[in-house]
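Hello Y.,

Per our agreement to keep a running log of every chain we model this quarter, I'm adding this entry. I've kept the format consistent with earlier entries: sequence first, then predicted structure.
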Amino acid sequence: MATTTTIPPPWEQKLQQAQEVNGQHIFIYRGGRAPRHVTHVIIDKSIKIIPFRTFCCCEDLRYVKMHNGIEGIGKEAFINCISLRGIDVTNVRVVGEMAFSRCCNLMALDNSERLEKIGVQAFLDCSSLGHVNLPSVRVIEASGFAGCTNMMYATLGRHIEAIEISAFYYCTSLRRLRFELGDNDISIAIDAFDCCRQLTSIELVGKIHQSISSLGLEEWQDDMNREIDRINHLLPNIHDSLKTAELSQWVDTVRSKIECYKLMENTSLLELALWKATKLDNMVKGGSVWERQTCRMGCGAAVVIPNVLAFIKSTDL
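Predicted structure for the entry above:
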């Protein structure tokens, strides 16, 4: 009597290829769609980008070991992985659209310092995510962290360029935003922080404080420090629907004020240097070369005269 061979379904064939380590079934991911019933995964070093919906709805997935060569996580790659608690994203630069959407037990993004782009709804409704540290991020797209109701603080670095529509919408526990003003203008959508009722503290870090302390007049320094602190007196006393607009306006004001004071200081230095330089011709004719050089160094003319006057002549001003 002939015997028949039962061919297991594709997901079971993949599980049969898994390894067992310390009693745990470890699935080695080398491409394609992962079986839905995996619990522990190691990403093979041949994988550089985790593709579209790779681990979609793997509701038992609890552990994923990445490697340093992974540069991107594709659209919906881990959507609805409701048991996933943490993931190491070392060297990952882009998290795609809805990549971790509704991973409701995801508590931490480890080693997220190189992330540059957070896609649309990338972490939508990740209600256990407590904080994010994104010093290299440039863009947080629409609803990137919307509904992260347990997030208490977020850190953004000097590269940030855009915080798009509803980026942090309904992050009801968000209390503190820490970020650095870089050289780029920051575009903040009008509702980026809507329904962030607890947002009351903005911490501005980085070179801005060095710039303030280097201002020549103490009253300028005091004015800048008052402006920086103003937002923390304002946020606790306004409706959450107004917080984004106030934050955006405050960022623009801080940037424009420090630039204005720097310009005023540089203009004053230029005027002083030029004024002192004109006095050189009125020095005693018998003055030594050393005396004239010392005067020029003291007033800055050694730098100003050859550069600024040459510019003025070249522009026929």
